[in-house]
Write a structure and sequence with these properties.
The protein has about 280 residues and is mainly alpha-helical. It contains ten helices and three strands. The protein has a three-stranded antiparallel beta sheet. Strand 1 and strand 2 form a beta hairpin. Helix 4 packs across helix 10. The radius of gyration is 54 Å and the shape is elongated.
């Protein structure tokens, strides 16, 4: 049977409505039936494509904006540091190292000072030895001769007025005091001279620094008395010479055993002394 009017051709309006696309606004002719039969497939394809694009866009944005999670992500976050954070980290550790180094240096300096100061404050027991001083012209002349050849005037200056040999803060100061009657010489008795020249010890028993008494411990009573007579005969000079002290470098060398600051440590204080030279 031949289809009747309106049969065999689906109404496009009904098809579009089935896909939710609304009613058609016109009725196509029969020749357009094939095109309209394809329209539902095309619309579905467009719908699926747009949905895929939206899902892809959402996944891309989520991937870029989301924060990684899990152990690997946490390790990566801990490992990575901005350049300024690394610079602060390095400076912080350099500061700590500098503090440790300065602390060690301060502790070492304090230890060296303490050990050397303990030596400088030591007391020496020196046997009493009676020294007779004759102040006649011959003895004074002999005393000037002995003081010159033995190098006493090199440290204490011509006429025993005092002399500064070395003065460097890091090393120390070596100065021969003023031994004239106007200086320290006025305070010294014969026994004090004997203890200082032969033993390197002050009247109170403390050691003298840089006093080369180990070279003078062999002096006879006659020669030592002549030196004392000469010192008492020179014109008095009221000039205070700077004091002698050991600086950081000399203290370090002394503690390390490279230098002996105190001749008193090298002298046999019980040694007997000859009155005079005998042929």
């Amino acid at each position: 049977m031949m289809p009747g009017p309106g049969e065999g051709v689906k109404q496009p309006g009904r098809v579009c409505a089935a896909w939710g696309l609304g009613q058609a606004t016109h009725a196509p002719e029969v020749g357009d039936a094939k095109i309209e039969r394809r329209s539902p497939t095309f619309a579905a394809s467009n719908f699926i494509s747009s949905g895929a694009r939206r899902a892809s866009s959402h996944m891309t944005e989520s991937t870029l904006s989301s924060t990684p999670s899990g152990p690997a992500a946490r390790r990566s976050a801990r490992t990575f540091q901005p350049p300024h954070s690394r610079a602060r980290f390095i400076l912080r550790w350099l500061g700590r190292v500098a503090v440790v180094v300065l602390g060690l240096l301060a502790a070492g300096a304090a230890g060296i000072y303490g050990l050397s100061e303990r030596k400088l404050r030591a007391r020496f027991a020196v046997p009493e030895h009676r020294l007779v001083v004759s102040e006649d012209a011959a003895t004074v002349a002999r005393g000037e001769h002995v003081a010159t050849v033995r190098g006493c005037v090199d440290c204490h200056g011509p006429g025993f007025v005092g002399n500064t040999i070395l003065d460097q803060p890091m090393i120390g100061r070596v100065a021969g005091p003023n031994l004239t009657p106007g200086g320290r010489g006025a305070e010294l008795e014969a026994r004090d001279w004997e203890r200082a020249v032969r033993h390197g010890v002050r009247p109170d028993g403390k050691p003298l620094v840089f006093m080369p008494s180990h070279e003078f411990t062999v002096l006879t009573d006659e020669d030592l008395g002549a030196i004392v007579a000469y010192a008492r005969s020179v014109p008095p000079v009221r000039q205070a010479a700077p004091s002698t002290y050991a600086g950081p470098m000399l203290r370090l060398m002394d503690v390390a055993g490279k230098l002996e600051l105190l001749a008193a440590n090298e002298i046999d204080h019980a040694r007997a002394h000859e009155p005079r030279l005998t042929a």
